[in-house]
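Methods — Computational structure assignment.
A single polypeptide chain was analysed. Its primary sequence is given first, followed by the predicted tertiary structure written as structure tokens.
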Amino acid sequence: MPSLKQKLSCLGCTLLLAIAGILTWRLGPWYNTSYDATSLSVSTSCSDCCNGLESNCDLPVNQILFPTVHNAHSSYENGFITASNNLPLEEALVAGYRGLMLESCLCDGLLGTYLLKENEGSNLGFCTSFCSSGVRGALEVLRNVKTFLEANPNEVLIVQIEITDNGFESLRSALNTTGLTPFIPRFSETYIQIWPTLRQLIEANTRLLLFANGDEISSCKANECPDGILSSLDHFSQTDLSDLESCQPTLSGDVLSSFFLMNHWKNNKAKVPSEKNAMVVNSMDVLEGRFEKCESRKRGPSFLAVDFWDVGDVLDFAEKENLKRGGVVVVVEEEDGLDAANDDNVTTIAIVDEGGNGTVTAEARSSGI
């Protein structure tokens, strides 16, 4: 029977081999994660919609629910160890997610050399704690975000970045290099009391709200924040990371902050992201149950941040919630249960039932009728 020392040695060798394999895959000429406008186009977007719905257009941006990918840079498809997601953030954007949470890092060693080569002299990447557990080049990701915005002129994104390794100036440089800076709105007031609507942001083509916290980030007046990058702590409140049930903001920012982030993911007992847990917490029943507890609040969450974004009912739930916030009452019934043809005030929405029960019909009425 092998000794404990031998077992630990074998485990260490296995881990090193895994990292070496990932590096070989990541650094090889076959690895390419650039996307063109066609692959990032949202085919379901309508010409009069804002983030997929007409009813979103005239709501202030902080009153919309943004389905958000936690650790959006981290996916198994991008070669991350213990990733937070299965698929890349670019595919999440196409699917309908409009919020991204990223963590920046400055990489050294072999990965740093790779990033310097691929990122035009910058070793700035997006990783989770350590570059060796997986990293994506910042220029690559930001260019793909810009391509998405250019391909989808009616879509507004919010990106929240945790800055580590004193990488704020490197981030500013990357934003300018990729041409994303013009998409970031500039505010004339020192404190934003009334946020622009999605329509206003779309018409001004300033469709990327960017928030940051961490190293080198300090509180700033809205009209003085560098490159329009707002401090998360000035504008966000959020739920406790261990809280999967309440709607109570307990971390960061004041409870009267303009944006409310609901953290909604559950790691496993080893404290690593769990797709199995995501299947539960991302389900419609769990989401509806938690949001019911928000009804006593003046305003519900602005962000619903999840792991394994492709699992569960997050996008369907977010659409339903945003329709409600936009003054649209949606009643889902069996197809022959409605008499919409005789009511001029009814909009009929066809919804594909993925459970295999065919098509159901939703009756949508303005709440003012």
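Note: Residues 334-369 have pLDDT under 50 and may be disordered.
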